[in-house]
Amino acid sequence: MRSQSSIAYEQLKEQIFHMDLLPGEKISELQISSQLNISRTPVHDAVRRLAAEGLVTIQSKRSAVVAKFTDKEIKDIGSIRLVQDILSAELASYYGSAADFEQLEHLATVCEEAAEQGNIYKRIHADGDFHLKIAEISGNTNLYQHQYSVYQQIHLIQISKYTSIEDSLLQIHHHLPIIEALRNGEIAKLRKLICMHIQDFFQIDPYLLKCYGTDE
């Protein structure tokens, strides 16, 4: 049986990811406890757990808000994502099977369809599923766990930076070329595609892009 703290954690996380609570918005522990018909203590514990995951910012003993990242923090998270995405992809290209790559194509399609429909939550969630699947195919459990942690924060960043259906579609148009490069073992092309995929969104440092051979 799930504890009250776990229930509160899952409820809060769902509200954050479904944009019922937006980045920068105050979290009312009293309101959450009333919704779930539980005391404030497990809600308080859930808020602290979300803060440890970087999804909530504690402002005082009884005050917290949904995390809202600065431009510097977004850039830093993007740098971590870049390195981990490339390592995941290189390993996935080596260890991946035809069935794995077909599954990636399905996830890419789900993401594109959600983007076309303007379904922000589903589009962001599907994008995360796509990239985490690559990490899973890599076969490196620790890498996957680090990727999962980073992509939780990226979910919030994508919410805060969402602008339009057109821009959303543009952001994901590298998915299919990435799959093709994975399938063909084209590592240099794979690195370049991943850099192109995220460099503008996260304002990746040109030095990092140069390190991965994408400078023109």
TrEMBL record:
InterPro entries: GntR_C (IPR011711), TF_FadR/GntR_C (IPR008920), Tscrpt_reg_HTH_GntR (IPR000524), WH-like_DNA-bd_sf (IPR036388), WH_DNA-bd_sf (IPR036390). It comes from the Bacteria. Pfam families: FCD (PF07729), GntR (PF00392). The keyword Transcription applies. SMART domains: FCD (SM00895), HTH_GNTR (SM00345). GO terms for molecular function: DNA binding; DNA-binding transcription factor activity. Keywords: DNA-binding, Transcription, Transcription regulation. Residues 2-69 form the HTH gntR-type domain. Signal peptide: none annotated. The keyword Plastid does not apply. SUPFAM superfamilies: GntR ligand-binding domain-like, Winged helix' DNA-binding domain. This is GntR family transcriptional regulator.
